[in-house]
Structures are given as structure tokens and as C-alpha cells.
Amino acid sequence: MKNATIFVRSLIGLVLIFMSITYFFNLLPNRVNNEDFKAFQVGLISSVYLMPMVKTIELLCGLSYLSGRYVTLSNLVVLPVSINILFYNFFINTDQLALALFVFLGNFFLIYRYWKNYKSLFTA
């Protein structure tokens, strides 16, 4: 189980780092946008800070996953991001739904594996 944890953690870390670096350096070409995505993109562009903040969170959490340090904190910080990635790919862009499901389920797997670190959050 320890090897599976390291494998999933490293794979998610690489995905998060890759996606944030491609955003900051414009390495991927723009996709063909449908009408739903254009409406969503207008909202993202209107809030100037949101995408750079999300991609910075992805980068920091990806580095944390790869290094194995602060993984417990990174699991909680990247959870809303992974939920948003899943919903975006489920409702707007179904091309990368498998990758989004992997990131989301992998995040929950890591939360399960590090559950002993979260127990104190749920005690009265």
C-alpha cells in the first residue's frame, strides 16, 4: 500500500506541475472553444487573479506531492481545485474526463491514506 501511495502521489504531482507550467508559459495551444466554455472563460478572465492563483496552488501542491513534504496540507488545499477540475471536465469539456477523475479520486485516496493526520480535525 505504501508503494501505491507513493505512485499515486507522484503521478498527481507530475500532472499538477505539468498543467501549471503549461499555463504560465503558454506551452499548449488554445483548444477549440464551445459556447459553454466561452461563457465560463469570460468569468475567469473577468476575475484577473483567479487562474494565476489556482495554477500557483497546483504548482505548490504538485511540488509538495513530489517531495513528500506537507502532503497532508496539500491534500486539503488542492481538494477544491480537484473538485472544480472534475466538474469542469464533466459539464463543459469531456475530452479530459479520465484525467480529471484520476486527479479527484487520487486526491481522495491520499486523504484516506493520511487519515490519521486528519482525525484531530473531526474531534470535539
Write the layout of secondary structure elements.
Elements: H1 2-25, H2 35-46, H3 50-67, H4 71-91, H5 97-113, H6 115-118
Helix pairs in contact: 1-3, 1-5, 3-4, 4-5
Protein name: DoxX family protein
Transmembrane segments: 7-28, 48-66, 73-91, 97-115
Keywords: Membrane, Transmembrane, Transmembrane helix
Walk me through the structure:
The protein is mostly helical and 124 residues long. The protein has one domain (2-27, 48-122). It is built from 6 helices and no strands. The protein has helices at 2-25, 35-46, 50-67, 71-91, 97-113, 115-118. α1 packs antiparallel against α3 (50-67), α1 packs across α5 (97-113) and α4 runs antiparallel to α5 (97-113). The longest helix has 24 residues, at 2-25. It is globular and about 45 Å long. The two termini are 30 Å apart. The mean pLDDT is 91.
